[in-house]
Write a structure and sequence with these properties.
The structure holds two protein chains of two kinds.
Chain A lengths: L1 H39 L1 H4 L3 E2 L5 E2 L7 E2 L38 H18 L21 E2 L1 H14 L4 H10 L1 E2 L10 E3 H17 L1
Antiparallel strand pairs in A: 1-2, 1-3, 4-6, 5-6
Chain B lengths: L3 H31 L5 H10 L7 E2 H24 L15 H12 L9 H4 L2 H31 L6 E3 L1 H26 L10 E4 L5 E4 L4 H10 L20 H25 L3 H28 L3 H6 L11 H14 L14 H12 L10 H21 L4 E2 L2 E2 L2 H27 L1 H4 L6 H16 L14 H31 L15 H15 L4 H13 L1
Antiparallel strand pairs in B: 1-2, 3-4, 5-6
The chains are: A mainly alpha, B mainly alpha.
Chain lengths: ~210, ~550
């Protein structure tokens, strides 16, 4: 009984502390960080959006997407991203992956289907399809593909847009990032920025 | 070979960064928990909150303060989650169901951050910031306070069970360590691309004319404390795999550093508090050894990619992001399960069987490599007491640790501590697998299904919070069971540690004699690692055989 009273007394002190903590940590801290970020890096703080011309914007109405978020690409003339398990695919409000295990028959079948699909689309031997092309990412919003998967898609994209393969390869190289400091992460290609560049090159070619 | 160099290189960079930062932060932590003076802002806060910051609490009062504070935290967070539709910035989301709100309230107050819900589809900004972010700070500060109290108790002699003041420790840990650290980290993450705004999801028309929602929110501010406080609760469902939480390999490394910083520094601070730097270094070395082994095994497993699906795909990339790859994902996984964080930058459920198994073992060892911000240190100190006891039995020496005799009462406290987590994990698992409501949550059959349930219980009981996400845990059964596992897994050990601290503080220091086992030498470090692996690890061998080991061999 004495302990119970003591617990109650301590809980009341705890309530006072928690209310103060909520004001400081739950309101002031996030607002301060928001203020600093909005002033210092408004583009990044608002989702790294880009326009169809490839310019940075913070206005969603003129954006075609975020360079950080992969998106569905319903155009066989463009570079395709990895498979996505976010909602019905690339759902910005349902990030996530398949969570299927390494021995899952369901995942094994999916990998086989994807491999056949990509091989047929690119007109290559199924064995040439790289791993990232047949696996879904953790976020379902992976904005990038491996250089190998991008290279595999160059002939198709070049043909579809009336561009030289060499020119498309140059665009891929331009949008490829290496490992940070040579050791962190993996080499990768930004799909959205690359597709914007491909469309720009196609339109420039058509204008000649 | 070309793949191996970056995998090793990222670990070396991490080691260098930590070697520079840990001693500095350790000194700051030792000062934080022992300095007699108060900052002006703290004095103001104590006056306002009517707290006597200099009252030296008996361990029972200290424990009641910690429990009372956590109780209020659970009630308040529960209320926020049940009433969020009435709060501003709710984004139109309704109340969480009762079982879900209970689970989440317990989850964040116990520093677990198990998430049955999907952040971007269930919670408004105010619930995230005033509910979850606040608990990310104060639950971490609570763990740190308890660890500091244990260290202080070991430095005292004949203090009659008095171990310090919980409120002072709580306020100092928050104001002097976590808040400034999180502020710097949050701004750094925002500069590197992590989202930080107050808007809801906005719709864009994609390049090929489709529609996509671009979510918003105060992400960077939550991300920073989520890693620094070893909490792990993601703003988004995909957690640190989401490009808005963790956009680049550099932010990935920063988040890994943030997870390890405080747990390692607490070990360093421990050495300073007990007045013998070598004691802290020994504890730190044992933590580091276990972590290095876990990183090596996990990295090997994911890069080699054994298993049917990784073979078929040509690599273990299911559930992994291109920018992190296998090595960057494996390092993150070893760190998040070796600490009590539970943030994920890749989906552990899709890891190779041995990789997922190593992640489980990290948690099952009680998370001491290096563990949670506070629980890592006190967990390792409990194992140190077990180690001197076992060593004493082997050679007939009187067991003592840092001049404190280890008697029957101490051993009882320590034994119950060590048994608490296996009890919760194994009894919880047996219960879950014996009722239809438990089995219904499993996504897969056979060994992998067992692994999903085992992972969940291991994660909840050890307050980690990561998951084999295939498990459908947002049901009344799982929410209730895991809520209980988190609650008991946090507060039972916490009270036992404080009782142990009380006994240490009361005991007279015995002088070092020829019969004293030195606890700062490499021999002791290897004994300590051995005790962690054998005494704790062996308990779980049967269930690990049926889960990840059988799956590895299939």
């Amino acid at each position: 009984m004495r302990d119970l009273l003591a617990l109650l007394r301590q809980s009341l002190a705890g309530l006072r502390v928690l209310v103060a903590a909520t004001v400081l940590l739950g309101v002031a801290y996030p607002l301060l960080v928001t203020g600093i970020a909005q002033v210092a890096v408004p583009w990044q703080a608002n989702g790294s959006l880009v326009t169809a011309a490839g310019e940075r914007t913070t206005d969603a109405d003129e954006a075609v997407g975020s360079v950080l978020l992969g998106q569905a690409t319903d155009d066989d003339g463009l570079f395709q991203p990895r498979p996505s398990a976010a909602g019905d695919g690339w759902d910005g409000l349902a990030s996530g992956g398949s969570n299927l295990g390494p021995e899952s028959p369901e995942l094994l079948a999916l990998v086989g289907e994807r491999r056949a699909e990509v091989a047929a689309r690119e007109g290559v031997d199924p064995a040439a399809v790289p791993p990232d092309a047949v696996t879904a990412s953790g976020s379902g919003l992976d904005p990038q593909v491996s250089p190998a998967y991008a290279a595999l898609q160059v002939p198709r994209v070049a043909a579809a847009n009336g561009l030289d393969e060499a020119a498309v390869r140059a665009l891929v190289a331009e949008h490829t990032a290496g490992r940070t400091l040579g050791i962190l992460g993996e080499p990768r290609v930004d799909v959205l920025a690359l597709n914007i560049a491909v469309l720009a090159a196609r339109d420039a070619g058509a204008g000649d | 070979m070309s793949e191996l160099l970056p995998a090793v290189g990222q670990v070396l960079v991490l080691v260098v960064v930590l070697a520079l930062a840990v001693p500095l932060l350790g000194r700051h932590l030792a000062h934080t928990y022992t300095a007699p003076g108060h900052l002006a802002v703290e004095r103001g806060a104590y006056r306002l909150l009517r707290i006597d910051p200099d009252a030296d609490q008996h361990w029972r009062t200290y424990a009641l303060s910690a429990l009372g504070f956590s109780l209020v935290g659970i009630l308040l967070l529960y209320a926020v989650l049940r009433l969020q539709q009435h709060l501003p910035l709710s984004l139109g989301f309704g109340a969480l169901p009762a079982d879900g709100a209970w689970n989440t309230a317990v989850s964040f107050v116990t520093n677990t951050n198990w998430q049955w819900y999907s952040g971007e589809a269930a919670l408004g900004h105010l619930a995230q910031a005033t509910g979850l972010t606040v608990q990310n700070f104060v639950s971490a500060a609570t763990g740190m306070a308890v660890a500091a109290a244990l260290a202080r108790a070991l430095s005292r002699s004949g203090a009659g069970g008095r171990i310090g003041n919980f409120w002072t420790d709580l306020v100092r840990g928050t104001v002097r360590v976590l808040l400034p650290g999180a502020l710097v980290a949050a701004v750094l993450l925002a500069l590197l691309g992590v989202v930080q705004n107050l808007s809801g999801a906005r719709t864009v028309t994609t390049l090929t004319g489709g529609e996509q929602s671009v979510p918003g929110g105060p992400v960077a501010s939550q991300e920073a404390i989520k890693e620094l406080g070893t909490n792990g609760g993601g703003f988004f469902n995909a957690n640190s795999a989401h490009p808005f939480e963790n956009p680049t390999p550099l932010t990935n490394l920063i988040e890994i550093v943030l997870m390890l910083l405080v747990p390692f520094a607490m070990a360093w601070a421990f050495g300073l508090i007990v007045g013998d730097r070598r004691q802290g270094a020994a504890v730190l070395a044992a933590m580091g050894l276990l972590l290095v082994v876990a990183v090596a095994l996990l990295t090997w497993a994911e890069m080699a990619g054994p298993g049917t699906v990784p073979h078929a795909a040509g690599g273990a990339l299911e559930g992994k992001e291109t920018r992190f790859g296998t090595a960057g994902s494996a390092l993150f996984a070893a760190v998040t399960t070796g600490t009590s964080t539970g943030a994920v930058n890749s989906l552990h459920d899709s890891f190779t069987a041995p990789g997922g198994g190593v992640a489980m073992v990290g948690m099952l060892l009680g998370e001491v490599s290096p563990g949670g911000v506070g629980s890592g240190l006190y967990g390792m100190l409990v194992l140190a007491v077990v180690t001197v006891f076992i060593a004493g039995l082997m050679v007939g020496r009187t067991p003592e640790y840092l001049g404190k005799k280890i008697g029957q009462r101490e051993i009882v406290l320590v034994a119950v501590y060590v048994l608490a987590s296996p009890f919760l994990v194994l009894v919880g698992l047996a219960l879950a697998l014996s009722v239809p409501a438990g089995v219904a949550g499993l996504q897969e059959d056979g060994a992998h299904g067992l692994s999903e349930a085992l992972y969940a219980l291991a994660s909840a009981s050890n307050n980690n919070g990561s998951a084999f996400g295939g498990l459908t845990s947002g049901t009344p059964f799982w929410n209730t069971l895991l809520g209980l596992a988190m609650l008991l897994g946090r507060f039972l050990p916490l009270v036992l540690v404080l009782a142990l601290a009380g006994r240490f503080a009361a005991a007279q220091r015995v002088p070092v004699g020829p019969g004293t086992l030195p606890t700062h030498r490499p021999l002791f470090v290897s004994l300590l690692v051995g005790v962690a692996l054998v005494v704790v690890g062996l308990t779980f061998v049967p269930v690990l055989v049926l889960g990840p080991i059988v799956e590895s061999l299939s």
